[in-house]
Amino acid sequence: MAIPRDFINELVARTDIVDLIDPKVPLKKAGKNHSACCPFHSEKSPSFTVSRDKQFYHCFGCGAHGNVIDFVMEYDRLDFVDAIEELAGQLGLEVPQEQGTGKPRDQELSRDLYQLMEESSLFFQSQLRQHPDKQKVLDYLAHRGLSKEVVEHFNIGFAPDGWDGLLSRYRQNQDSQNKLLTAGMVIENDSGKRYDRFRDRLMFPIRDRRGRVIGFGGRVLGEGTPKYLNSPETPIFHKGNELYGLYELKQRHRDPQQVLIVEGYMDVVALGQFGVDYAVASLGTSTTADQFQLLLRSAKEVICCYDGDKAGKEAAWRALETALPLLKPGNQVRFMFLPEGEDPDTLVRQIGKEQFEQNIGQAMALPEFLFENLAKKFGKEDKSVLAKNAIKLIEKVQDTVLQSLLLEDLAHKLRMNGADELKRKFNFSTKTADKPKQHKALKGRGTPLRLAIALLVQHPRLGEKLPEQLALKHVQMPGIDLLALVLDLTRGKVMSSAQLLEQFRGDNQFSTLKKLTQWDHQVADENLLKELKGTLVWLNNQYLEQRYQELSLKTNLTKDERLQLSKLISVIKSKA
After folding, report:
1. What is the DSSP string of 492-543?
2. Among candidate residues 338, 354, 249, the one with its CA nearest the CA of residue 299
């Protein structure tokens, strides 16, 4: 299956790029464009521009550029199809499908899995209301102090005790059973017998950024093991890429100032019950780079909440190492450690929201945690050992402000005269290869062919009323086919640069055209059409010259060719 090209064009036309980006990356008017600090790399002054006229964004620092689809793919870390569905959802549109000639794409399976997972979630929620054993679950929820509102907000459900509570709903549908197996909801043993993965458990649906159920966490109600059972990795669920509760957090806070990352589902839910409704949980893993990027895009301040024991401190250190290369100006990461034997769930019940949030406010800043741990680990060694280990970490930091702060702190702790002395003594490297490559803007007129393509890509309206350029299809020149195609696409149509570019997605010319959207051709706005027509005249003359050379070198000309050569000679003489 494939998404119709016309629908993609409509989506790009109906989505204003400034309105899309501004809520996520606040923009400021800068002439006829808008600007901001780039969301895709660390910088202190804005080099990220958004053009409403072209419906395009471009960063002059890291080179990131594209249309609304590219932005959603890059910013929200979605693939092409998911980005299309996300944009369509914002407009209230259903994504149509057309039958292709190749094999059905993976998104058809994914779509079925999403549907089955949503049905599973609804089933578990219904069992919480209707199952004969529901009272023990309701008693458990009451014991944990969870209100009906919180239960509904997180769509908490109940997986009944039994081997086929969920599976029995699909007894007559073998295809759905197979997909439940793929989705991790059903297990198949060595003898081929299938049964429910989750039994007699409180069920926490895990949703992706778009709100689709992609997996579950199940908490045992009694004394069984494991205490928490999670969905396995599946085609739609990769636990290192997701955060439990992030979708629910965004439902309450469009632009949260801070986000608290904890370890368990119940921690998130219990904190939400007490009004600390900005917590998310990693899914049984150390916080990954993908998860940290999600966190930092969601809020400027991330508080990592861990147990105060040795294991908790080690987990926090791994999180610090993961976060350092990802931090951008304005981002803050702090570390909060809990009293021994406590978790967020139990602690917030003991001390309440106000005191818990006071504890959050006292969380350790990243530099403090960094140097405290280095001191504990290398404090008894020679100072150079501590310095070298610190520098290895500081070199990873791409935020130059934070990097300078850490170097100054380190120099002060080593009783040195500032960061410059520290850099000289320990050969500090900024590792520019790891930093975003600075892309210089292309300038100058270039070849007439290049100029013609650039003018059309940047201002597709120029091609709207141009006559068909038949001669261009016979010119022997690299790139002429691309110009002819762009002319055909823009003739008689009204479109933006973003719409025109979208016609080439997946084509080997896509990258070239994207670069040309940012080329500074140095042609004034009032001269755009004149320059384009001038380049087309030059290219048509190239055809006349090539055809003249071809015919003049030919020994046996036909009658028509002799007539054509005669006309070409007249034309060339008139231009001389």
Report:
1. T----HHHHHHTTTTSTTHHHHHHHTT-B----GGGHHHHHHHHHHHHHHHH
2. 249
Bin 378: left if φ > 0, else alpha if -120 < ψ < 50, else beta: alpha
- Residues in the chain, overall count: 576
Residues 418 and 408 sit within 8 Å (Cβ to Cβ)? yes
Strand order, beta sheet including 301-307: 279-281, 258-262, 301-307, 332-338, 364-365
Cα 63 to Cα 149: distance, rounded to the nearest angstrom: 46
Asked if pLDDT for residue 144 goes beyond 80, the answer is yes
pLDDT digit string, tens, across residues 158-189: 999 989 999 999 988 999 999 999 999 999 99
Contacts of the segment 405-410: beta carbons below 8 A, 24+ positions apart:
405/367, 406/367, 406/370, 409/367, 409/371, 410/371
Rg, C-alpha atoms of the chain: 31
Would you say 517 and 58 are in contact if contact means Cβ atoms under 8 Å apart? yes
Q: Give the range with max mean pLDDT: 122-131, 319-328, 564-573.
A: 122-131
Q: How far apart are CA 100 and CA 217, in angstroms?
A: 37
467 DSSP 8-state letter = P
- C-alpha 374 chain-centroid distance: 33
pLDDT digits (tens, 9 = 90+) for 187-238: 999 898 999 999 999 999 999 988 899 999 999 987 778 888 999 999 999 9
The pTM is what? 0.69
Closest CA to 479 of 457, 443, 452: 452
For the range 564-572, what are the long-range contacts, defined as Cβ-Cβ under 8 Å and sequence gap of 24 or more?
568/544, 571/544, 572/544, 572/545, 572/548
Output the CA torsion sign for 310, 311, 312, 315.
positive
- Which residue in the block uniquely carries the two structure tokens 């509102």? 149
Both tokens of 373, joined, read: 């741990």
Best CA proximity match to 459, nearest among 531, 385, 351:
531
The CA angle 564-569-573, to the nearest 5 degrees, is: 150
Judged by DSSP in three states, 419 sits in helix
Q: Is the dihedral of CA 239, 245, 248, 250 positive or negative?
A: negative
Helices (DSSP H) in 274-427: which residue ranges?
289-298, 310-323, 344-361, 366-378, 383-394, 400-413, 418-425
